[in-house]
## 1
Amino acid sequence: MKTNVLGYPRIGEKRELKKANEAFWEGNLSEEELLAVAENIRVHNWTLQKEAGIDLIPSNDFSLYDQVLDFSFTINAIPERFAPTQSLSELKQYFAIARGYQKDGIDVTASEMTKWFDTNYHYIVPEFTKNQAFSIKVNKPLQEYNLAKKHGFETKPVLLGIITYLLLGKEKEAGFHRLELADRLLPVYIELVKSLVEAGAKTIQIDEPYLVLDLPQGAAEAYKKVYTALKAQFPNTEFILTTYFGALENNTELAVSLPFDVLHIDLVRAAAQLDSVLKALPKDKKLSLGIVDGRNIWKNNFEHSLALIEKVKEVISSDRIYIASSSSLLHSPCNLELENNEKVLTPEIKQWLAFAKQKVKEIATLKTLALGHDLSPEVKAIFEENKKAAQNRKTSTLIHNPEVKARVKAITDKDSQRKSAFATRQKVQEEALHLPLFPTTTIGSFPQTPEVRSWRASFNKGTLSQAEYDKKLEKEIEESIRWQEQTGIDVLVHGEFERNDMVEYFGELLSGYTFSKFGWVQSYGSRCVKPPIIYGDVSRPKPMTVRWSKFAQSLTKLPVKGMLTGPVTILQWSFVRDDQPRSETATQIALAIRDEVVDLEKAGIKVIQIDEPAIREGLPLRKADWQAYFDWAIRAFRISASGVEDQTQIHTHMCYSEFNDMIEAIADMDADVITIECSRSQMELLDVFADFKYPNEIGPGVYDIHSPRVPSKDEIYHLMKKAIAVVPFRNLWVNPDCGLKTRHWEETKLALTAMVETAKKLREEYKK
Ligand code: GLN
Ligand code: ZN
């Protein structure tokens, strides 16, 4: 039996890498200084894994920016358009590909990023051409292996698998499929592996998470071909084939047939696959059991894990079993020990948690317990403590709120339905709101100026009193309302100045939520997020936003939109419970939001927006599972929105993704109005409306808020005309792509003025 870690977080316990990278980009840190920080982090990570007793410690799991980019860089798959960066140092060139570069007479835009499977981590998308060539540019895997060796660590190099790497990329021209490049990549891959083997590597991990997805045509053959060829070259090297984030299912036969020595499977995300994998696994192969969750923050339940290991032991012998993290630990925060503020994270809750460093220890302890002979008093004590924590979590009154559970149980179909159908609501709302054709609105937030942020910081530190803070916010809201009135916007917003983040803000006001101080997880490059933690049944002790919306509405006769985050997005951007299904947690949040919606209506708010930007990223990896997701996710949204009268207009907002393939589910949400990101793709989204008649009102974003660029009236007009071609014009709204909180007021004012003027022009044109 061996212990196996698939990868460790690389940002550093206190985000040292983030800080060093950003300082380097600003020109405030030298290359040597940056590389020294990067080396320290690796040595720190290797040390703690070795001290914990991990047998297979990963190397090349580190990255300065992204592991997929690292691989592209290693094999010289650098898109042609970055040719001008060749004059830069290697390191600067690397970052230029990631982030773009506009200096020294060079002007290249950043590479595209997209989500790493169904996580919140974003990788740099490889770009391939038909004649794509590969060669070793920098042998980063070898450099890292040797670095570890220099510091006295024997490691297991981690390589992205050939097929997964190619499938993660994109063809940049027509006439070929990227899988056809496998043959050309193979010799370079063999060269890489050869260098590692010659340097002394005994075990190599090859990541092929694509095996848990629906594979495209030809992939199975490509898998067999390249890995048969690879293994033939290195008969004495132990190769671990790693799959994670889901079940192998129909790819089980393929996976076990590949000439790997060890198969790794994710038993946290997909425990049910164990039986079929055990049945299919050939006698000469080992199995790596991914049982310590790489993507969440809960302490492992040792009794459960041991039961599972026992089950495996009945089929295969101990020496063929590896105990492992389910995936790389990249997706969990670094170190729970740093959380020593009992007001932020109480000791009772803390005892239920484990971050990466603690998870590494869990893996080691599980092996000791599973082997079972002569347990030291220390290990026995750890086991006892683990059992106690699990028991406590099962019964804690902090977690279990019978009222919430009963309310969820009592939900009926009626609760997820508005009183009348959309056509009826539309008429009633027209009378209640008196909006013009092509009504204008914004998505909610206005610029969060350094000033606004500084008030919040002072308030949190205690140097600004609640009353003073509120006063400043009220003044900011009043100014924004006046400006919107003057500019001629039809449905106003209060501006969200009181919010730090659209999920954290609600998390802080809901029960069942807690927070960490250092629970950072890499999102992309130097960007980290600190997801709040849902530990218990969620409920809303008191209204959360009514005070601000009511105040804003009191200042004007025009409608002010209430502004809420929807249940699916709150769920998606938090660490969630693993002791009940996601659907159950989503429903609890939905009820809390529903109460807020009803309270807003009671307070005189006539338009309420429930943001669901994350609804698409919750989609399961396999298409066969989509419908089940829609069933609960769309229902959760509808529960949150359906407590109000017909004349209250419910908006929702979505961004960050392509929605073309789930447009019917979006329609099924039955929001009266949806505002949706569209402008970056030049309204490509609207193509689907040629076939699918979206039934309700829609505001396709008319300009990209991610850039400071001010759109011209012409551009906006042109985009709206595209929309008018496929959506009945009476159903169209005019609005930006997303919230404006990252923008400056200057460009915001210019852009929104252009937007309002365009709407006026359209009104003239379509008057009759
Ligand atoms: N209402 C939020 C805002 O305007 C929406 C943010 C988002 O969609 N990501 O900031
Ligand atoms: Zn948005």
## 2
Amino acid sequence: MGLVVQKYGGSSVADAEGIKRVAKRIVDAKKNGHQVVVVVSAMGDTTDELIDLAGQVSPIPSGREFDMLLTAGERISMALLAMAIKNLGHEAQSFTGSQAGVITDSVHNKARIIDVTPGRIRTALDEGNIAIVAGFQGVSQDKKDITTLGRGGSDTTAVALAAALDAEVCEIYTDVDGVFTADPRVVKKAKKIEWISFEDMLELAASGSKVLLHRCVEYARRYNIPIHVRSSFSGLQGTWVSNEPTGDSKVEQAIISGVAHDTSEAKITVVGVPDKPGEAAAIFRAVADAEINIDMIVQNVSAASTGLTDISFTLPKAEGRKAIDALEKAKGAIGFDSLRYDDQIGKISLVGAGMKTNPGVTADFFRALSDAGVNIELISTSEIRISVVTRADDVNEAVRAVHTAFGLDSDSDEAVVYGGTGR
Ligand code: ADP
Ligand code: ASP
Ligand code: MG
């Protein structure tokens, strides 16, 4: 029996009862002969509450202090979990991200892991302990400041530790029974997926299926770490995410893996951009220099009479202010007319490797949206994904319509959501 890394999300450790329930599960894994490393998130909606609190004392908190504040959430849950395990008669030690050797770059609020040196975790395991690690945090290599990995980052901590410790599997415990063909909070008829490739999971995660963070899937694919996504509330088998179907999950790759949606983005339109070489480069240089990741981009054809065009792009709402400020600053140099900001948008994506060889998929997708009366504002595609931007109010209806149109609805059971607020 080898080493397993188990990650428990906030909804699994939302209160003292949750922590005790999770502690029993961890002890069971240890009793079965595994060495167990646990990565834990902050309890319930703690992180959101800390963010709200920061907003009350400062409209734009410093990145360093913001990270210092947010990492407190995971410190609380890791210590309580270690106490609960000890109370069951087993040895456990908790570690901050820094103590666990999670080394990052110094981009506060969305740092990237650049190395993991889990010496102290190894020692704790060798001494017979269960090691509990605070998720979502690390320490920057150069300044030795505390950093966070971006929302949902505990998933990445878990996979990074699993890779560094050469774990057999990384188990992600959450409040649903696995990865479904759509968010079970929106589509009651969503089906649990037995196995999904890294490739499809990466697209689903990047398109807003927050059950797994896309950086975590990227990491797992790079180091070939199988992920088992499952519920901490039930004993059911969950979803295996890996290169090839393994063990009891010998299933065929589906043509369409699922439908993802995302309402966390906003749209910026740069109005009246001179239609000449270098303009797009200047706009996106200004945005990139502000460390903002953008998603979709559309440029309209310029009206011949004015020689001006509009460029729209989407980005995380949380970065909207920063992007507008950066563009306003560069307005003189770039030479556009004005900026429009719209945060009432949503994105719906259809994902599946089978798209490559099934030419009708795009047409069927647009047909389903039009039958549901949903207007499309932007479109983007990859080899295995089609995404559209619509009004935010249309998103839930659109997801259900597309899910049904592609025959993904389950004809038996309804998907169970065990906990969490979906916040
Ligand atoms: P945790 O606190 O355990 O990290 P998250 O809230 O980050 O949990 O992720 C679990 C949630 O992801 C589920 O409650 C569900 O609403 C949402 N979700 C979105 N898309 C999917 C999907 N395709 N399959 C399963 N869950 C999904
Ligand atoms: N607690 C952090 C968050 O809410 C990290 C995580 O849960 O993965 O984003
Ligand atoms: Mg999560």
